[in-house]
Amino acid sequence: SSCTGNSALGPDRVYGVTLNEGEVAEVLADFDPGVDGSIYLVPDCANLGGCVAGADSSGSGGLEAFRYVTRNTGTHNLIVDGRSTGDSGGHDLDITIYSGDTCGDAIPVDNFTGVAEFFSTNGATADYSPNAGGCTRPSTGEDRAYSIFLVAGEQVHATLSNISALYDPTLYVVTNCNDIAGSCLAGADLGSRGVGETVAPEVQQSGSVRVNVDGWSGGSGTG
């Protein structure tokens, strides 16, 4: 109840999910008619108070879903539960994990609520160089990619904040990660450790753009 706001006294089933720091897991459970279910994610089943994400907002036969940004690498326990002792039955479970390690596996933010979300480039690889087209200063650190669909004339406002003390981040927006020189819409690199970055480009054509978080001089960090 501390995780979802409701108690769950029914039968439950546990799935092991391996997640790496910075990865995003989107989980959706579709319950059979007559089953009032909930879902929640815990690193340790012996400590449900350590739950990191959960959902229980629908009634019988409803959908439950949550999005979780991984803070600690390791196996997490996804528990699918029933509200009362009689709530047992089938469920369809959909788990999508985005690494954001390349633009091809960019983390979607199309349904982003505007609430600040944890990020980490720790453990990612260095795939892109924004300086190739003068988008920002040279950045040779680990990078993580996010995607968002924009309609022509819309503006995306992206901000990195609460940066880890030794991390010097770079932030840039492109329409094609394979052609940064020709598709950079905006870039920001103040060149200071522990200081955030902000970009706010307006797009001229409808389509998906990539918002890349990078690091200067081989660095990585969190925010």
- SSE ordering: EEEEEEEEEEEHEEE
Mean pLDDT: 91
- Overall 3D geometry? elongated
> Could you estimate the helical fraction of the residues in percent?
under 10%
Beta-strand segment tally: 14
- Spatial order of the strands forming the largest sheet: 8-9-14-11-12
Q: What is the tally of helical segments?
A: 1
Instruction: Tell me the strand percentage band.
Output: 35-45%
Which secondary-structure class do the elements indicate? Answer: mainly beta
Rg value: 20 Å
Poorly predicted runs are none
The biggest sheet amounts to: 5 strands, mixed
State the distance separating the first and last CA atoms.
29 Å
Description:
- It is built from one helix and 14 strands; from the N terminus they run βββββββββββαβββ.
- It is mostly beta strands.
- The strands form four sheets. It has a five-stranded mixed sheet with strand order 8-9-14-11-12.
- The protein is elongated and about 60 Å long.
- The relative contact order is 0.18.
Layout: helices, strands, pairs:
Elements: E1 12-19, E2 24-31, E3 37-42, E4 53-55, E5 63-69, E6 74-82, E7 91-98, E8 107-108, E9 144-150, E10 158-159, E11 169-174, H1 180-183, E12 184-188, E13 198-199, E14 207-215
Parallel strand pairs: 8-9
Antiparallel strand pairs: 1-6, 2-5, 2-7, 3-4, 3-6, 9-14, 10-13, 11-12, 11-14
